[in-house]
TrEMBL record:
Catalyzed chemical reaction(s): [(1->4)-alpha-D-glucosyl](n) + phosphate = [(1->4)-alpha-D-glucosyl](n-1) + alpha-D-glucose 1-phosphate
Main function: Allosteric enzyme that catalyzes the rate-limiting step in glycogen catabolism, the phosphorolytic cleavage of glycogen to produce glucose-1-phosphate, and plays a central role in maintaining cellular and organismal glucose homeostasis.
Protein source organism: Actinoplanes flavus
NAD listed as a keyword: no
Top-level lineage group: Bacteria
Coiled-coil segments: none
Keyword tags: Carbohydrate metabolism, Glycosyltransferase, Pyridoxal phosphate, Transferase
InterPro entries: Glycg_phsphrylas, Glyco_trans_35, Pyridoxal_P_attach_site
One Pfam family named in its UniProt record: Phosphorylase
EC id: 2.4.1.1
Family in the record: Belongs to the glycogen phosphorylase family.
UniProt name for this protein: Alpha-1,4 glucan phosphorylase
Length: 812
């Protein structure tokens, strides 16, 4: 029976009755329960399956269209995906929200109740992982044939608890109740080797045989990624590690050695146990490299399997395949593809290298030297002996090329080598990523420029055409329509159509309404209602939010110095006409990053102190909702008035929270860093609170003898804030934060303090004029259309991937 001959599976129906019937069938036949005994979770799972079926039907048409077209594919390799909760998005993308709300009533539940059971898979850390989720959404929305590959961690990013002691971490067993959105695909299981040794193959100078010492299975499952306003449904395929059958030692088990009997299987399964295992030990670091190779090895074999379904030979591989490396984590893929081609498929080295280079592209997401990954050569040699040999060969040919271009420039050769020499030789993954790819891009204009001028300068001189910029973007569906339905409705009404959700530049039409007093009043009322929902303080107070990972370069400590300055001012003159503010922090710190955790602890102390102070608390509140994740972001962003984007210029590659907040009408206070610059250029300098030094001023400061003490001496208000911390008024954490600021102040917090506080005073002045504020707010939304991830994906498609959309026909 050929399904494409018209005899296919029964299509899920479109009417309310059909939806209702499908829901009941799923409750009986797939959940195995009845209406009378259905729990909320039964109802949630059943609804999810009913919605999923509708997407699965679109998926089958997508696969058929892709198969018939044999297109060029995008494969996105990422260690992280922060997909967010699935139910609401899938209701929106399948246009079944209304049907679902009615149908679940018959089971005795409301849709909201069931949405609360929808857990987000926390398979990422921060911006990098959420960007991956926005890009796969937009690839499907743009009809681009794509698969996102990642790891199905058993435990995602930790669950954060905040107490007055600061942050504690609990494991996040996200799939404890199961994950109805996931399809296991055990037949596509892959085998991955580690350790062992290599052997020459007689008669072949470049081929080798690798005999791994450990074998692990990679078992895939996938989640559906529907496009918005289109028929395409792509997938994200996630690998989970399993021991092979041989990893269970029956004889030991029979002898009562139960732990020993399963130890090999446990070791294998540890590979996909947690996202970013602690890397403060050698074992932890090795586990991370193991994860990276595990992801890459499974994914490349799957990519080759898919290629071979439609093609023969290798001539077309690079024309049909582009593999995007999301930062350096999957960079070992370059050596792995070489190994597969040369050792397993017997392709000549030069041809294999040509294929490899044309297949990959690399996105760099940082400028911080400590975030550019390197691995000790000795670890590589033990874990991936064949890959190290291949990297040496790649490096040898590459350095010859450098020598030929720059004869006698030995220093350049040393700087550019993939292997860093020194007491401990290390493999520089970013260098491998630049050498082995066709395109390299940064994630905002400034970032791409600084990459070319600083960390990757030698490479940009060698291959200027390779370097590009693709400014990040965010999904307007998730971050406006789903997160902020009131605002989405007003925008749709104002623009006369909902087409902006698929073409965000249309928001520019709001400019015409920015002078309309009644529109501004409604705009304000929505912000207020969102604040009431968030329930984080007085809805009439200025809601000042700093939501992002905790890192010293992002400078949460600068925001705190401002809070302490306000605290002092209010205490000194309680009856003055203060602008009421709620300062909201949210975000996680890496468990081993002690300085960042001190800052969280200090925030918790200050928040409690202010709350207990009857003089200050009517005017100022500090709140710290715990466990920041996509779901919490969707509640905070619509309620924000002021968006804190205050990193030291030159350190934040892009930022994406800045875009989400501007899109929702928050006004940015920020430095000339990352995408802030592009936001300001679009929303207009008058609608953006700029402060601080620029990246070039910041870069020279330490060499020019920067002294935090000079700022301390010169600024009475700063001195008072730091003295309060030093005196221990806000506990030991405060003392340590002050010591760090007065010690080295790596991120020039004190240097930017005065400019920051003065700009915050300006913020207060504007806030006192509510219509002016609302006007600025509308203009922020109106001019944020550029920051749609649909535009980002269109940029990648045109300039880096060179892929064309493949439309999927509608069901007849
Ligand atoms: C992050 N990089 C950057 O710090 C953010 O500025 C940027 O918005 C996101 O990537 C997405 O591009 C990283 O997380 C990493 F890992 F590269 F440091």
């Amino acid at each position: 029976m050929d399904l494409r001959q018209g005899i296919g599976p029964r299509r899920p129906g479109k009417t309310a009755d059909e939806f209702q019937q499908d829901l009941l069938s799923n409750l009986f036949y797939r959940r195995g329960t009845t209406v009378e005994s259905a729990s909320a979770r039964d109802a949630y799972e059943t609804l999810s399956l009913t919605v999923r079926d509708r997407l699965a039907e679109r998926r089958s048409r997508t696969a058929a269209a892709h198969f018939a077209t044999n297109p060029r594919w995008v494969y996105y390799l990422s260690a992280e995906y922060l997909l967010g909760a699935q139910l609401e998005q899938n209701l929106l993308y399948s246009d079944t929200g209304g049907l679902a709300a009615e149908a679940v009533k018959t089971l005795g539940f409301s849709l909201e109740e069931l949405e609360d059971l929808d857990i987000e898979p926390g398979l990422g850390n921060g911006g990098l992982g959420r960007l991956a989720a926005c890009l796969v959404d937009s690839m499907a929305t743009r009809d681009i044939p794509a698969v996102g590959y990642g790891i199905r961690y058993d435990f995602g990013i930790f669950h954060q608890i905040i107490t007055e002691q600061g942050q504690t971490e609990r494991p996040d067993d996200w799939a404890f109740h199961g994950n109805p959105w996931e399809f296991p695909a055990p037949d596509d299981r892959q085998t991955v080797g580690f350790y062992g040794r290599t052997e020459p193959i007689p008669g072949s100078p470049t081929r080798k045989r690798w005999m791994p010492g450990e074998i692990v299975l990679g078992e895939p499952s996938h989640m559906l990624v529907p496009g918005y306003g289109t028929e395409t449904v792509n997938i994200v395929r996630l690998w989970r590690a399993r021991g092979s059958e041989a990893s269970f030692d029956l004889s030991r088990f029979s002898a009562g050695q139960y732990a020993e009997a399963v130890q090999e299987a446990v070791r294998a399964e540890n590979i996909s146990k947690v996202l970013y295992p602690d890397d403060s030990t050698e074992l932890g670091r090795e586990l991370r490299l193991k994860q990276q190779y595990f992801l890459v090895s499974c994914s490349l074999r799957d990519i080759i399997r898919r290629f071979r379904l439609r093609n023969e030979g290798w001539a077309e591989f690079a024309d049909k395949t582009v593999i995007q490396l999301n930062d350096t984590h999957p960079t070992i893929a370059i050596a792995e593809l070489m190994r597969l081609l040369v050792d397993e498929y017997e392709v000549e080295w030069d041809e294999a290298w040509s294929i490899t280079r044309r297949t990959f592209a690399y996105t760099c997401h940082t400028l911080l030297p400590e975030a550019l990954e390197t691995w000790p050569v000795h670890m590589f040699e033990r874990l991936l002996p064949r890959h190290l040999e291949i990297i040496y060969l790649i490096n040898m040919f590459f350095l010859r090329e450098v020598e030929a271009r720059f004869p006698g420039d030995h220093d350049r050769v040393r700087r550019m080598s993939i292997i860093a020499e020194g007491p401990e030789r290390r493999v520089r993954m970013a260098h491998l990523a630049v050498v082995g790819t066709e395109a390299v891009n940064g994630v905002a204009e400034l970032h791409s420029k600084l990459l070319r001028e600083t960390v990757l300068n030698d490479f940009a001189e060698l291959w200027p055409a390779k370097f590009q910029n693709v400014t990040n973007g965010v999904s307007p569906r998730r971050f406006v329509k789903i997160a902020n339905p009131r605002l989405a409705d007003l925008i749709t009404e104002g623009l006369g159509s909902a087409a902006w959700l698929g073409d965000l530049e249309q928001l520019a039409g709001l400019e015409a309404l920015a002078g309309d007093a009644s529109f501004l009043e409604r705009w304000r009322a929505i912000k207020r209602a969102n604040k009431v929902d968030l329930a984080a303080g007085d809805p009439d107070a200025l809601t000042d939010v700093m939501i992002k990972r905790f890192h010293e370069y992002k400078r949460q400590q600068l925001k705190l110095l401002h809070v302490i300055a306000m605290y002092h001012r209010i205490r000194a003159d309680p009856s003055a006409d203060w602008v009421p503010r709620t300062v909201l922090f949210a975000g996680k710190a890496a468990p081993a990053y002690h300085a960042a955790k001190e800052i969280i602890r200090l925030i918790a102390t200050i928040a409690a102190r202010i709350a207990a102070d009857p003089v200050v608390s009517p005017h100022l509140r500090v709140v710290f909702p715990e466990n920041y994740n996509v779901t919490l972001a969707e509640r905070i962003i619509p309620a924000a008035d002021l968006s804190e984007q205050i990193s030291l210029a030159g350190k934040e590659a892009s930022g994406t929270g800045n875009m989400k907040l501007a899109l929702n009408g928050a006004i940015t206070i920020g430095t000339l860093d990352g995408a802030n610059i592009e936001i300001r250029a679009r929303v207009g300098a008058d609608n953006f609170f700029l402060f601080g030094m620029d990246a070039y001023q910041a870069a020279g400061a330490h060499q020019q003898g920067y002294s935090p003490w000079a700022y301390y001496e010169a600024d009475g208000e700063l001195r008072a804030a730091l003295d309060t911390l030093r005196a221990g008024t806000f506990g030991e954490a405060g003392q340590r934060v002050a010591d760090s600021l007065l010690g080295r102040d790596e991120y020039l917090t004190l240097a930017d303090f005065r400019s920051y506080v003065e700009t915050q005073d300006e913020v207060d002045q504007v806030w006192r004029d509510p219509l002016r504020w609302a006007h600025m707010s509308v203009l922020n939304t109106a001019h944020s259309g550029f920051f749609s991830s649909d535009r980002t994906v269109a940029d990648y498609a045109a300039r880096i991937w060179r892929v064309a959309p493949v439309p999927v026909p509608k069901a007849d």
